[in-house]
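Minutes, methods subgroup
Present: GH (chair), OT, SY

1. OT presented the first of two proteins processed in the latest run. Sequence and structure tokens recorded below as shown on screen.
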Amino acid sequence: MPKISPKLPLAMSEEGGYGSTKSIPEAVQQNLKNLILTVPGERMMDPEFGVGLYKYLFQNATPPTYDSVRMRIRSQTAKYLPFVDIHEIIMSDPDDDRFQSTSNFLSIKIVYSIESMDDVNILTLSTDQSTN
């Protein structure tokens, strides 16, 4: 089976060497997740790279904050992953029990497709790490 890119976080695989992504959709999902979780300034030689999802964690959960997150995700994806077409970005559901129990909870579901591929993919991220 072809190896596309190193799988993150780096870990030794059973075959020896580091684990790797084995399909284009898997590699793209890993790259999209990296883009969203990377804090701007964290990546060497490209201080503009990244959405920095965690920096929004302690901001008010208001429509303008959600709009800012959506806009940042769309602009960063257009710049760094132009072959990814984002269909929808769904933010934390206020009816979610985790959202009610703590104000420091953020969940995002991104529905996207990869240019020239027919399937639609979903990436779900949350600050409590239970749905990654």
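2. SY then presented the second protein from the same run.
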Amino acid sequence: MGRDKTSADFLFDGEPLAARVARRLGEVCDEVVVASGDGARLGWLGLPQVADTVPGRGPLAGLIAGLESAGHFFVAVVAADMPFASPAVLRLLSSRADGFDAVLPVSDRGLEPLHAIYAREAAAPLAAALAAGTLAVRDALSGLRTRVVERSEWARADQSGRFAWNVNRPGDVHDP
């Protein structure tokens, strides 16, 4: 991208992208906590932040930090670059969470581990995977009891599948 997608001046439809995602997550969560890498860089959001468990190790370290700080048994997780994060899809995933460490939708691109529901207890096996050198969230899932939610299930909540879309290129700041 050439710039920080989570900065206050990175706008999506006139709203800071990170604020938009946090707002959408707040529609379904009692508390929104931001795993911001250093635990401070997104202070402008006015939300509690946690630092990654291991600095510089990417989204998996942020996911672990968020789970470790969670006050609830189940946690909705959404990447900060997903402008169409879906409260309805998160509610659907949550309704299927009992007995699982993670409930993940599968889109046309595959599993969506950063628009999912995790049990707080998933932090330990994820941390073990990170300590063993795993960096990709998808690869770290092998140590979890997962429930995959196919399009045939989640389409009731989001027919378009836009919840799984993320901003990766400068041209992506406009509605896909």
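Chair's summary of item 2: The mean pLDDT is 90.
Next meeting: continue with the remaining queue.
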